[in-house]
Each structure stands twice: as structure tokens, then as C-alpha cells.
Design goal:
Rossmann fold; 7 helices; five-stranded antiparallel beta sheet; about 230 residues; binds S-adenosylmethionine; seven-stranded mixed beta sheet
Length: about 230
């Protein structure tokens, strides 16, 4: 088995299996601990976690060659919709010991699982049980961040993401927004929804850098990568 660094993303790797198949991976910040049943592979004494693009929209966006290079070692990330930590754990691997991941989740049951699986093994992850619609309840604790990652799968997810950015994202910071077409309006075509949300962001002061449908990894999500011009 061989390991290669990703061309443009720090702390993201390709693992090449003996059959030539290449898979995305991150170095495990909590060696020996799995978060979602992912494969752990040790190469030259370093443990890597295979990153599944069918389970993580961020991995899918990377495979679609979207530029998420601001998620890097030492970065401070506000993660909205942490769930049980599939993606947040890989973000924690990437930002490393010098970085921070503030993980917001509204469901107490889900947050308990997140804490057990992820936060209790990783000192750079700060779990916050809160509703992302009320950023003012945690903005003081979080401070200013380099990146807001939003995957709450709610009809008003764009508005939620924008408000969190206004309160905590640094000037020229990055917003990664996963847009779930069906959770916004089940009666409209996905492309129509993506365009409407793109317009909202543009009117709200965001420069859109890239928007891509995550097919075939995810059938009804697009990822929007944008910068807050403030
Ligand atoms: C699609 S899942 C996130 C998956 C996760 N990002 C991943 O890739 O591992 C959406 C999560 O957002 C949470 N959520 C929904 N509304 C929320 C809100 N208003 N504030 C915070 N979390 C919310 C849900 O409880 C759920 O766990």
C-alpha cells in the first residue's frame, strides 16, 4: 500500500491499494479509534482513516475538485450540523492539534453520540449543543473563525449559514455550504433551488467561488464554496 499527499490540500492524502484503487484519507488524530466504521490503514507507523465520499459531502466535494484549501492545519472551523461526526472528525484530523473545530448540533441525543465517538478522543473538537438559528448563543465562545462549514439540511440552511458567517467568519473567510435541494422545496427541480440559494448568497455579500452537484456520491446535494467580502 502507498500513500501520496493530495496536490493542493494540506493533510489530505491518497492511499493506493495493491489493486491500484486510490482512496482519500486523513491521518488519524486519535489512533486506534474509528468514528463511522471507516477503514484504518497503517503505513510506515502512521495511521490513516479512509474518507468515504458516499458518507461525507466534504470528501465528495474534494473528489469533485472543489477548492477547500482553507481547511488546513491550524485553522479554526465552525461546523454547523455536526451529527455523529463523520465529516467533522476528518476536519479535526486536517486542522490538527493547533486548529479548532467548534461543532454545533441541536439534537441532544445526537450530540451525546458525537461526544462519545469524536470529541472525547480529540482535544481540538469543542462540542456545543445549540440551535444554529441562534448564533448569538455561542458566538462569544467561538470568536472569529477561518471557515464556516454548514450541513444542517434545513429549509432555511442558507440563511442560517449567512447569519453565522456575519457573526463569526473573518473577512475573506470561507463558507462551505451543503445545499439539500429536497429539504428546501420538494416541488422544485434541484437546479432551480441551487440557483435561488446562490443568488441569496451573492446578494448577502458572498463571492461564489464554485458550486457543484455532488452526484454520483450524493444524489440531491450541491456544495457551494464562497468567500465573505466584508
Ligand atoms: C445532514 S446531517 C449532518 C451530517 C454531517 N455534516 C456529516 O457529514 O457528518 C444534519 C445535522 O444537522 C443537525 N441540525 C439540524 N438543524 C439544526 C440546527 N438548527 N442547529 C444545529 N444543528 C442542526 C441535525 O440534527 C443533523 O444531525
Amino acid at each position: 500500500m502507498k500513500v501520496f499527499p493530495h496536490d493542493s490540500l494540506q493533510e489530505v492524502y491518497w492511499i493506493e491499494k495493491p489493486d491500484g484503487k486510490k482512496m482519500l484519507a486523513t491521518k488519524n488524530l486519535a489512533p486506534g479509534i474509528r468514528v463511522y466504521g471507516e477503514e484504518l490503514i497503517k503505513i510506515e507507523g502512521i495511521e490513516y482513516r479512509i474518507w468515504d465520499p458516499y458518507r461525507s459531502k466534504l470528501a465528495a466535494a474534494i473528489l469533485k475538485e472543489m477548492d477547500v484549501s482553507m481547511i488546513k492545519p491550524g485553522a479554526k472551523i465552525l461546523y454547523l450540523g455536526a451529527s455523529t461526526g463523520t465529516t467533522a472528525s476528518h476536519v479535526s484530523d486536517i486542522v490538527g492539534a493547533r486548529g479548532k473545530v467548534f461543532a454545533i448540533e441541536v439534537s441532544a441525543r445526537v450530540m451525546r453520540e458525537f461526544t462519545e465517538r469524536v470529541a472525547s478522543h480529540r482535544s481540538n473538537v469543542y462540542p456545543i449543543l445549540a440551535d444554529a438559528r441562534h448564533a448569538e448563543n455561542y458566538s462569544d465562545v467561538v470568536g472569529t473563525v477561518d471557515v464556516v462549514y454548514c450541513d444542517v439540511a434545513q429549509p432555511d440552511e442558507t440563511e442560517i449559514a449567512m447569519e453565522n458567517c456575519y457573526q463569526m467568519l473573518k473577512k475573506s473567510g470561507l463558507l462551505c455550504l451543503a445545499i439539500k435541494a429536497r429539504s428546501i422545496d420538494a416541488t422544485k427541480e434541484p437546479e432551480e433551488i441551487f440557483e435561488r440559494e446562490r443568488k441569496k448568497l451573492a446578494e448577502g455579500g458572498f463571492k461564489i467561488l464554485d458550486i457543484k452537484h455532488l452526484y454520483p456520491f450524493d444524489k440531491d446535494h450541491a456544495m457551494v464554496i464562497s468567500i465573505l467580502r466584508k
